[in-house]
Amino acid sequence: PMRKEIIDAVDNAIQRIKRLILERSKEGDNVIIAGIGNTIGIGQ
Predict the structure, then answer these.
(1) Does 2 or 15 have the greater pLDDT score?
(2) If you compute the radius of gyration of the chain from its CA atoms, what whole number of angstroms results?
(3) pTM, whole model, 2 decimals?
(4) CB–CB of 42/6 below 8 Å?
(5) Residue-level pLDDT at 7
(6) pLDDT in tens, 26-42
(7) Does 44 reside within a domain?
(8) Which domain holds residue 18?
(9) Contact, 42 vs 7, CB < 8 A?
(10) DSSP string, 1-44
């Protein structure tokens, strides 16, 4: 199963991503969010 620390961090991560998109892009820009990384050990 997924660790509690990961579950608890999801909302914070989403808010950080939204804030970064708003700060670094303009209306009409295309934004690509790619989840690339190590997922070994994360329960599915």
Answers:
(1) 15
(2) 14
(3) 0.64
(4) yes
(5) 86
(6) 999 999 998 777 666 66
(7) no
(8) 1-36
(9) no
(10) ---HHHHHHHHHHHHHHHHHHHHH--TT--------S--TT---
